[in-house]
Protein 1
Amino acid sequence: MNAKERIMAAINHQALDRVPTDFWATTEVQESLLNYFSIREGEGAGEESPWIGLNGGTLSRGVKGILKLFDRMGIDGMLNVMPPYIGPEKREAHGLVFNEWGFGYREKKHASGTYLEQEHYPLADAETVEDLARYPWPDPDWYDYNALPGLIDQCGGRAVTVGYAALFTYHNYLRGLETSLMDPLLDPEFTGELLRRLGNFFMEYHTRCFEAAAPYIDTTQVTDDWGSQNGLMTGPDIFHQYYQPFMQQAITLAKRYDIAVIHHDDGDCRRLIPDFVSMGIDVLNPIQYRCGNWDLARLKADYGKDICFHSGIDNQAVLPMGTPEDVKQEVTKLIRNLASDGTGFIVGPCHNLQPNTSLENILALYEAAAAY
């Protein structure tokens, strides 16, 4: 099997030659690994594009660099491709960088790395449906969908993800987390209109992506973060009433084009997994099993025939603070439980590998997956 065949066989619960692997990491970690393997700056240059990245973030040196890194580390890997933005020029003000949605970000340096953190939420002060009507919503015309096949062609035959439909997440980005959690309780009409406008944009955007490149797209994300360290961030009734109907539309759209659906959901989202199964989610990422103390064997027994589990190697404790042997034992434990039938699991960290994780532990992760 090649890398893409291995990833897609796991998603489709087919027999595997070995358990496939994926890679999410901050740019600092990518740089450390590229330097460790002496992958030079020029090897990641050339026909590069900012519209190709990891499913968990941006690439340090472009797609050529990450493909060489995948080859050196024996990683199957998945790449994320976006239609290039061709809309109005984005602005900067007061030290903030604004995207086409009006989200304002500032670069902040921490001991664990440098991150763009959102500080401006453009609809934080909106109060009425009329305020929503006056907001300059992005236009689906602002993207070059016809560029997608050419961008995918640069991905070295790896599995490719196109699309990110995340209604709850974008509600957070527009209003701020605390306000967005209160909206459905305090103003159902306002919330319904905001989500309707978001949903309409996502449906049009993704329809155009799929029309332009469906034969070359393997997966898409219909995603959101509902889980916290223990339990859900909001009641399941809020999910069912306000967000699930749109998610179902987005999943149905992807299935119409024969594209597998990934649902990314950090934290303890166990109460919603039966809904994810009934809605047709194909891949659940990550299995952050230490959030709420999941029973991995029971998870596989209950849902393993319906959902492929993606990532789960703990990066709250094991990866940053354990030894290489601890990491190998962690990898073995997850494979034994989540791939107990020989398929249906893709090995990877449960979130981006952070700079506080040693290279020895990162290498141990992928060595253990290959050796199992």
Note: The CA atoms of residues 18 and 38 lie 27 Å apart.
Protein 2
Amino acid sequence: MQQTTPLPGHRPHLRTTVDLNLGDAGEVTLSDGSVALVRLLGMESQTDSLRGAVRRARVDVQVNGETASLISAAYHLPITVGGVQIDCPVVAPLLRKRWTDEPWSLEHDVRLRFWPANSPWITPGTFRYPAVQRWFATDTQMCNEPCFVGGAEYVGTERVYYHDGLDIGGSEGDTEVIASGDGIVVCAGDDFDETGRAEFELQPRYDRVHFVDDRNWVHLYSHLKEIDPAVRVGAHVKQGQRIGLLGKEGSSGGWAHLHFGIKCMQPSGRLGQEFGYAFLWQAYLAEHTPDIIAVARPHQLVRTGEQVVLDASRSWCRDSAGIATCEWRFCDGNVAVGKTVERCYDTPGIYSEIVTARDQAGNESVDFAVIQVLSDYAPDRFPPGIHVAYHPTFGITPGMPVRFRARSFHAPQGQEHWDFGDGTARASVKSVPYGPKADGKHAPDGYAVVEHAYEHPGNYIATVERTGPNGLRSIARVYVTVVG
């Protein structure tokens, strides 16, 4: 069993990280000096039938005599077991068959993190949500989520592209990116500090910014359309300071998003990925104080006829009574109630199923379960991928123009068709598609843009559809709130 030790002279960590093998047991010293007795009891992974990619990894642990199961990453937050908080960032099966190098520096079967009971996950006031937009404003790909939409370029290979870091989708050239903490810039575009590059194993690129905070954590920003001139090597940045604008530069896959990551020393004694989802969550709640957040992610990949479980059990509300109801509305017009529901799909396509979570007071939040359904893993049988975004996402009032963006993938012909959810006429646009045999991913006009203004306050679901040359249809949605 390997455990992290605080670095002298740096801000102390609230979490303690431990790497274990199956059957390992021992004492873990928490940040407040208390000790927890931990045993790793078991581990199980579930893979999809099309790619053999790990879609769900579960570990069984015993902490201070209490047993529990943890799901690794996949939008799961720490839970309380045996009087301490615990989560599981990564397990060894997620490191096999990877398309890219292993970013975690994990040398054991499982990585666990521990916090004292009732402790925040990161010191309050030291971390900000790095994108100026609503939570889940559009697609995301968080740590260990397998590659999504299309993926035809991976056909014929046994390797799987598991995403590392935190991808926050947004509106290209519109969504502002800000500093998640205080730090010193060690890389800004093609300019970098040679000492910092070597110490932190940086990979500079024209669309990237790296800065180092007082924990000795490296904060990474990628795919920026624009880097603010004040963000230069050696400069001190303050949390909340403008870093630049979100884009689709570099190795973005052609969709506009911020790749945000944290790299720091891991129990193996090597630099590795730090699972930041809980930190983003804590920061967003502190900054925006939402009453409720619906969570229906990650996306799923299934074969036609296979049963899939749609899961909104990770939804959250501020009310201690918890989520009252979850209502699902499906693309075929059917409705179901429950935090989890089961479905089968007979027709290939990409489906965006709507879940509305409500608390006891009637507050509600909407999220979308995205299901990619294939009859076979072959390039000519893929539905078109599609990414949609809008701006602004806060403070929309009646009559204010909202900029909607859409881009399709693996569909060289056809158009995107928008329904803004308010009963007005639909709009059709044509993006510059990206994929094998299609135009370049960095095309400046890759996204088709249409503006729309809502006449009345309310919550609206805007939907865009695209049909590929093979007749397969994809659906994507965003949730828009208009205030009075």
Note: The longest helix spans residues 277-288.
Protein 3
Amino acid sequence: MKAIRVFQWASGTVGRHAAKAVLERPDMDFVGLHVTNPEKVGQDVGMLVGSKNTGIAATNDVELILRSDADVVVHAPLPSMVYGDDPLRDLDDICRLLAGGMNVITVVGYLYPKAHGPEVLKRLTDACARGSSSFHSTGLNPGWMGDLVPLFMSGLMRRLDHVHVLEISNFEHYPSPEIMFGSMGFGATPKEFAAKNQRRSEWLNSLFRESVWMVADGLGRAPDRVDSTMEMAIAETDLQTAAGVVKAGTVAGQHWTWTGVIAGKPRIVHETVWRMHSSVAPDWAHGRHRITLKGEPGMHLEFDANYVTDGLQATAMHAVNAIPLVCAADAGIRTLLDLPWTTGRGSLSLG
């Protein structure tokens, strides 16, 4: 069997995990790495991803990807909806690759393009048609816990009335100030949070709106709409965390809720409870991540906080393991609902 030729886009943490995995796979050939940092251009891929020398030099030339004989591009940059000057950069790059004949698997969003509206859906559909290529988006959550797992669970049910996904995370011992205070916006005053985190909030809303919409469609009931809310918890005193001090008066907790409304009722609910310290927001949910499906029979699963030891590696592997399926699929947008691992779903009741 001919090995699948893979071009990696980006060499951040997820990109490095993906590249190393591809380099180890006998059914795949690593053919190139696209980077955005000029200092990485020309360096051996092995050195950049922590592997042995490959003889392949990193590039920042997109045309080199399009001229290559790669079968698929694993697209894993920091999301442009949050970072950089152009929120639509990722979509532009993805469509350029697809139209140029490259299959694309991304982890930056667009999990269920239908939820973005007709314009985004048409852009991706048209690009796939021009290049006879396939597009797929995946991840951990969204991309596995809050969507694939409930869909799998529904396959054991006669009647499904309600889906509730609850992710509870305490970041007290998470040592990255860049992620906690930079990316996630903790430690900012409410005013600073609103000003600095608007793009990230819009990105999060798009991610989880897609996830809820996909679950609803997967259960045979398109949502009327997906509503979102966010509540902040403010530190009452200075809080010592592994990432640094969360000062009194700044954001120490975030509680997001995305609700799929079907036939006028909340049917699919995805909540995230994020704390920077165990003492924050004691009235919010505590305990394990959990998924509850109400119906007949009812189902309930719980996950330890460390149910996966490395979430970024898991994200990368969900993309890499999808490569053979996406390359074998017909041209077009191929969501998690279209690939073999989601067979056996139940259907959502309106009773």
Note: The chain has two domains: 4-140+313-342, 148-305.
Protein 4
Amino acid sequence: MAEASISSIRIFRQWQPFRDGTYRCSGGRSAEGFDSTIVEITSRDGIAGYGEMAPLGSFYDPSFAAGAREAMKELAPQLLGYDASGIEALNRRMDLLLKGHPYAKSAIDMALWDLAGKRSGLSVASMSGGAEGTRLPLYRSIAQQSPDAMAIRAQGYVAEGYRRLQVKVGLDVNEDIARLEAVRTAVPADTVLFCDANASWGTAETRRFLMATRLLDYTLEQPCASYEENLAIRRATDRPLVLDETIDGADVLLRAISDGLVDGITIKLARVGGLTKAKLLRDIAIAKNLKVTIEDTGGAQIGTAAYSNLLLSTPEGLRQHTVDFHNWVTVSNARGEFFIADGMMSLPAGRGLGLDADPSLFGDPIFASKSQ
């Protein structure tokens, strides 16, 4: 179908400052906002799809915003003329042309899903399995500060309606114990807590934290960096364990399932290469009855809509939660309402991502490639 072939690809850069100021996580790392890259893919019939990739600084994942843009500039001209509806074939082509660097392919893949949805009249949720229900549970992340400051921030998020909080730990263990205790005391007993070390502890620090907090109710998320360290912790505790940074592809997920390592996983679109590969991981997790979180490394409305659509097509009983990144930042990149109440989010209804992406909000394109 000639009208479905890719006729042009444009790339934009959008700086997205954080609403709550500097975001701090383990090891003293911090960021002031998301450096987002937005991709527009237009088919020959004039329909456009949009995707977004926004890393949390250059320290969180093996991703680099400026590098992603250079990779996209290299990939884009080599995708022109191909059938935009052949999303898996285009993913294979990107992998052929550029080895690794999944984060650089994520926004392109996302834009292809959005375009396919607009051309077919279906939402991404419908195309990825069919929506179950209409609302998603949200969590809010509490960046590292003093225990008292984190407790105050937690109370503020609860007042806004959030019922699930992620407490960032991973620094000095004694201080982290105090952080968790302060937050746990400050919020209602039915508030769900996750403790996320972002892979910053070794096994010794993790064991100390687990021993000191054994009477508190929370889920432990990604305590250590290496697979083997996390497996040692799994064998030493009955605390629910979720892995995030470790889950970067199907091979490691299958290994983790075989080893009985995880109770749940967090899938980030940019880490694995976009919606197509995230769906594969999601489907493996469903088959093994694992709890699933689907999100990304950052972004505004475009990114939020993409991962939320995929989570909405995940069985309701296996959905863990997600995050409203578009509410973390002070700028927008699309028009469409996310309805948030009582710690739950409903998505905008519509084809593809369900949004009206607005290029006037992106600024001028930094790159454009068009077929002749």
Note: The chain has a mean pLDDT of 95.
